[in-house]
Design a protein that fits this description.
With about 400 residues, the protein is an alpha+beta fold. The chain contains 15 helices and twelve strands. The longest helix is centred in the middle third of the chain and has 32 residues, at about 220-250. The protein is globular and about 60 Å long. InterPro entries: Cyt_P450, Cyt_P450_B, Cyt_P450_CS, Cyt_P450_sf.
């Protein structure tokens, strides 16, 4: 049963999801035309589409990342076939459980510094803290550690918040001013963050993604497109999930207590369930390059699919009759991951899934175990149509007695 909502809380409806958008649902669970797209809401349909190697990526900044002048290699997110398999295999070493555990001391240090800052100031926004954590962690993995000026996280925000819609059927009307602003944001990111990192690694290789790309003779423009992809698909999405998980547990003292006093596997189960109900990327898009069949239904080449991840994750045929409720220990069919399709599936499944959960857990447990951590202000709930996910802003918390102005 859904718990009573606090006054002023944006959570509403009959489910435990904070970000559910009923207007995105179709009346039928079957593959159904919705405008120029075929929408999938059933879990099995969504998984079949994501696993199909004949379907190409469509959406999620495909046009923006593919239009960087001078770039010769598509980012790994948009690669297909053997080139994609080779790149995923070569870069997987940065995201294995062993590699992620190796990042543990770095993540712990960053999380401790952020909690210490909150303690000094007394009040801060969780979404600001989570942005800084997500950007710094991913920057270490990618190699964006030689910036000429501070403020990397704000420069990334600038080009992700450009107001575009990444749906393949969207009609974006960029004004000259907006086009200039977005181009300027990407240029600043390149000149202040990406270019210095490339120059540093040309002098001395390190164990990070940019060094690997240089070994593959990637140009500066190719590396820029890859960094844009990781900035949006890794940094921004992790920021939102940490904020959402913090808010959900601040709203539920029993869940918060269970979380902070549990083992790591049990904590991860709670985070996976929160992510199942509120996947950061709620819609994924694929395009059929040739005639194909999805769960027995023939579909023509050129068909573009919208996979409603949030709907698929609440499919009662897979998740159970209580699919819309929070239940971290639910029994699932064999082969169904606890987070559903929140990390995607198939060839383009998120490579940083384990890293995202690990860093979220390390920060959230450090934050939520403080008994005097209190909620000051509920977040506003908005949506980013580039990422096709939610944005939570202004989740303000108080910790201890402030010694300085926040």
């Amino acid at each position: 049963m859904t718990e009573p909502r606090a006054p002023g809380c944006p959570m509403s409806g009959a489910t435990d999801s904070l970000t559910l958008r009923p207007e995105r649902l179709t009346d039928s669970w079957s593959l159904t035309p919705r405008g120029a797209l075929m929408q999938a809401q059933r879990y099995e349909d969504g998984r079949a589409l994501l696993k199909d190697p004949a379907l190409a990526q469509a959406g999620f900044l495909a046009k923006v990342a593919g239009n960087v002048q001078g770039a010769a290699h598509p980012p790994v997110l948009y690669m297909q076939g053997e080139e994609h398999v080779e790149m995923r295999r070569a870069t997987a070493r940065y995201f294995t459980p062993a590699a992620v555990n190796g990042y543990g001391p770095m993540i712990a240090r960053l999380a401790d510094d952020l909690i210490a800052e909150l303690l000094r100031k007394g009040e801060m926004n969780v979404d600001d803290l989570s942005l800084r954590l997500a950007v710094q962690v991913a920057s270490n993995v990618v190699g964006l550690t030689s910036s000429r000026l501070p403020g990397l996280e704000r420069r990334i925000e600038a080009f992700v918040s450009g107001g575009l819609d990444s749906a393949p059927d969207a009609h974006n009307r960029l004004s000259p001013l907006r086009d200039t602003l977005m181009g300027g944001a990407v240029s600043l990111f390149f000149m202040l963050d990406v270019k210095p990192a490339i120059e540093a690694r040309r002098r001395e290789r390190q164990d990070d993604l940019i060094s690997y790309l240089l070994d593959r003779d990637y140009s500066d423009q190719d590396i820029l497109t890859e960094c844009i992809t990781y900035a949006t698909a890794g940094m921004i999405t992790t920021r939102e999930f940490i904020t959402l998980a913090a808010y959900q547990m601040l709203q539920r003292p029993d869940l918060r207590a269970e979380y902070v006093h549990s083992t790591e596997p049990a904590r991860h189960a709670i985070l996976h369930e929160l992510l199942r109900l509120d996947p950061v990327v709620a819609m994924l898009y694929r395009r059929a390059e040739q005639d194909t069949v999805v769960n027995g239904q023939p579909l023509a080449a050129g068909t573009t699919f919208a996979i409603n991840v949030q709907a698929a994750n609440a499919d009662p045929d897979v998740m159970g009759a209580d699919a819309g409720s929070l239940c971290p220990h639910r029994t699932l069919p064999r082969g169904v991951p606890p987070q559903g399709l929140a990390f995607g599936d198939g060839p383009h499944r998120c490579p940083g899934a384990f890293l995202a959960i690990k860093e979220s857990d390390m920060f959230l447990r450090r934050l939520l175990l403080w008994n005097d951590l209190t909620l000051v202000r509920h977040p506003s709930v908005g949506y980013n149509e580039i990422v096709k996910g939610y944005e939570l802003r202004g989740l303000r918390v108080r910790l201890g007695t402030p010694t300085a102005q926040a």
